[in-house]
Design brief:
Bound molecules: NADP nicotinamide-adenine-dinucleotide phosphate
Distance between the termini: 47 Å
Number of helices: 14
Structural class: alpha/beta
Largest sheet: 10 strands, mixed
Helix content: 25-40%
Order of helices and strands: EHHEEHEHEHEHEHHHHEHEEEEHEHEEHE
Length: about 425
Amino acid sequence: MKTLKIAVAGLGTVGAGLVKLLSDNAEIIALRAGRRIEVVAVSARDRNRDRGVAIPASVAWYDDAAKMADEAQCDVVVEVIGGSDGIARQVVENAIAKGRHVVTANKALLAHHGAALARAAEDKGVSLAFEAAVAGGIPIIKALKEGLAGNVISQVTGILNGTCNYILTTMRESGRDFADVLGEAQALGYAEADPSFDIDGIDAAHKLSILTSLAFGTPVDFASVHVEGIRHVSADDIRFADLLGYRIKLLGIARMTDHGIEQRVHPCMVPVKAPIATVDGVFNAVVAEGNFVGRSIYEGRGAGAGPTASAVAGDIIDIARGCRVPAFGVPAAALKAQGAASIDRRVGAYYMRLSVVDRPGVLAEVAAALRDEGVSVEQMIQPARSPADSVPMVMTLHDTEEAAMNRAVARISALDAVVEQPRIIRIEAL
Ligand SMILES: NC(=O)c1ccc[n+]([C@@H]2O[C@H](COP(=O)([O-])OP(=O)(O)OC[C@H]3O[C@@H](n4cnc5c(N)ncnc54)[C@H](OP(=O)(O)O)[C@@H]3O)[C@@H](O)[C@H]2O)c1
C-alpha cells in the first residue's frame, strides 16, 4: 500500500514527541498500519529552535501552517499548535476543505467548534480524530466510540487535569496550602506561568464537553458546563476530608438525568476506597458507566510528550488502516441537542466547613438553618474549643437538592456567629 503522508503543524511538546515516536517505532507501526507513515511537512514559528528530534532535510518546512494545510502533498494534517481559534482553527479548516484527514490534540478547538468541524469533515469524507485531546495517553475516545458502542452510557466521570491532580495530591501529602504548592508546581514546570486554564477548571471542562458529546450523541456544548476550579480548596479541607474518609479530586462529571444532561467540573470529595480516589499526581482517570458493561475504569498519564504522541499515533494508524468512525461516534447530522440540567437540580451529599465564633448556641442556630431547608446532618466535627477565636465547624450533609443547600448556606452565612463564607464541597459516591 501507498505510504501515508503526514504534515505536522506545531513542533512543541506534542509535535516533536510525535515526530520522535513515528521515527523510533517506524517498523512496528508500518506492520500494524499495513503501510509506512512518513512525515513530509512540518510547521512551527521558529525554524532554528532545537526541538530535540531530527527532522530530515527532505521534510518540507512551512512558516505558515495554514498554507501547509492547504498546499503540502499529504494525506493527513496533524494540528498540535493549540488554541480554540486563530491559526489552529485555520489549519484544521483548510485541511478538511482540501479533503485531508485531520488529527488534533486540541481540546479547546473541539470544545468550541467540535460539532461544526465534525460536519465539515463528514461532508468531505475525511476523518477528524482527537484521541490526544482528552486524558492524554488514555484511549478513552476510542473506548467510548468503539469498545463501549453497544451500550447506553449513563455517566462519565473523570480526573481530567493532571496539574490540578498533582496540586491536590501534593497538598494532601505535605499538608501545605494551595498557593504554596501551586508556586512549586510552576517552578517544576508542572503548571503554566498563567495557570488559570488548569486550576480554574476550564481545561477539564473542555475535555468533559467532548466526552459528553461522545457519551450521549449530542453536539459539544461547552457553554453548559458548570465550572469551578480548585483555588478555594484549603489545607484544612484536605485534612478534614481525610478525617471523614474522603479524598478531594477535581472531577468532570457528565450524567444523563430526567431533566437533561448534567455537565459539571468542580472539586469533589470521593470515598477513600473509590478507585478514582487513589489516582494521584499527574495521572488522569475516566470512569464510564454503560447499561450492559457496567462500570469500566481507565487510568494513565494525561499529558506529556510520550502519552500524547502515543494517542496521536493511534489516530494516524487508524487512518492508515482505513478505519473510519464518525468524529463523535454518530453521524454529525444525527448529533441531537438535549436540554442541559441545571446544577441546582443536583441531588447528593455535601461537606460544609464553617468558621464560627466559639460561643454557646451557635450549633443550634446552624442546625435550625439546615432544618428549615430540609437538610439533615450526617457527621460533624468540631475541634478543640477556643473561646476567644473563631473555630472550624465541619459537617457532612445527607443527600439534598443543590438549590436547598444553597438556601441553607445563604441563611448560615447571614448568622452573626459565622465569620467567613461557608466552604462547600460536593460529595460524590463513586
Ligand atoms: N503538552 C501536552 O501534554 C498536551 C497534552 C494533550 C493535549 N495537548 C494539546 O496539544 C496541543 C499542542 O500542545 P503543546 O504542549 O505541544 O504546545 P507547545 O509545546 O506550546 O507547542 C506549540 C507549537 O505550535 C507552534 N506554533 C505556535 N504558533 C504557531 C503558528 N502561528 N504557526 C505554526 N506553528 C505555531 C510552536 O512553534 P515554536 O516551537 O516555533 O514556538 C510550537 O512548536 C494543544 O492543543 C494542547 O492543548 C497538549
